[in-house]
Amino acid sequence: MIIGRGLVATAFAQDWLHDQTTVLVAAGVSNSAESDPAAFLREEALLDDVLASPAARLIAYFGSCAVGNSAERQTPYLQHKARMEVKVLADPRGRVFRLPQVVGEGGNPHTLTNFLRTRIESGEPFDVWARAERNLIDIQDVATLGTHVLRHATDFPRLMSLADIHSTNMLDIVHAMERVLERQGTYRILDQGVSFPIDTEDCERAAKASGVRLGDGYLNALLQKYYGGHTGKAAS
User: Fold this and answer.
1) Is the dihedral of CA 184, 186, 192, 194 positive or negative?
2) How many angstroms separate the CA atoms of 111 and 173, rounded?
3) pLDDT (tens digit, 9 = 90+) per residue, 17-37?
4) Residue of 67, 125, 160, 194 with fewest CB within 10 Å of its CB?
5) How far apart are CA 86 and CA 91, in angstroms?
6) What is the Cα–Cα distance from 162 to 181, expressed in whole angstroms?
7) What rounded mean pLDDT belongs to the chain?
8) Cβ neighbours of residue 115 under 8 Å, at least 6 residues apart?
9) Is the per-residue pLDDT at 114 higher than 50?
10) Neighbours of 114 (CB within 10 A)
11) Angle 37-51/76-89 helices, nearest 10 degrees?
12) What DSSP string describes 14-59?
């Protein structure tokens, strides 16, 4: 069973939509800039309902890799995500998949890759934090990796990240997007930001077992897939 209608829910639907004993909670607060307590309470209430159901034998919640980065500013969104992780893991049926920046067709126009595409194509100026890093992963790979882990649940920890092996400096991400779009952006480089380390040891095991190729060349191939050819595809 899948709760949600967005990018993550759609990607997992083929394998899990009609499974009545596994519940994937892919709904709730998706905007990392959210600060409205009511939005957080709605997601918590939804999660409480799922955890109260005796029918589910396995419950998966999608969190954020930023929760695991102590250098990240602890926004209301990240504080909320951290609380939800604790709630899910307190139930022996629960497990948490932490996600980085997920890229796919459709979705939120304000996400990182869509923001970069729009600004570079329009020529509108923007700032790049030279010391910041981000980690991007294809939503299709998230579904492949997550499905493998759920089907081999005893082989993996209940809390793990589904992410590329390496996070990438923001300036390098901008340059990669420029190459894909064949355009140069207008931006100011600021000496700000923090690194974004992610423990991907378990994800690498899942990737090897499921045939997902992470690491060298992954970012360029990902951006080319969704933004190459000036097709106008949106990604999230």
Assistant:
1) negative
2) 14
3) 889 899 999 988 878 888 889
4) 125
5) 9
6) 27
7) 93
8) 126
9) yes
10) 19
11) 10
12) HHHTT-SSEEEE--S---TT---HHHHHHHHHHHHHHHT-SS-SEE
Q: In 3D, which of 213, 206, 210, 225 has the Cα closest to residue 162?
A: 206
Q: What is the DSSP letter of 70?
A: T
Domain 2-230, CATH number (from 3.40.50.720, 3.40.440.10, 3.40.250.10, 1.10.287.3510): 3.40.50.720
Backbone phi, then psi, for 188, in 5-degree steps? -110, 130
Contact 164, 207 (CB under 8 A): no
Quick one: which of 27, 22, 2 has its CA closest to 12?
A: 2
Q: What integer pLDDT is reported at residue 214 of this predicted model?
A: 97
d(CA 71, CA 133): 11
> For residue range 179-199, what is the model confidence (pLDDT) as tens digits?
999 999 999 999 999 999 999
Domain residue spans in the chain? 2-230
The reported pTM is 0.93
pLDDT of 16 over the 80 cut:
yes
Q: Report how far residue 139's alpha carbon sits from residue 13's, in angstroms, rounded to the nearest whole number.
A: 12
Look at residue 231 and tell me whether its pLDDT is greater than 70.
no
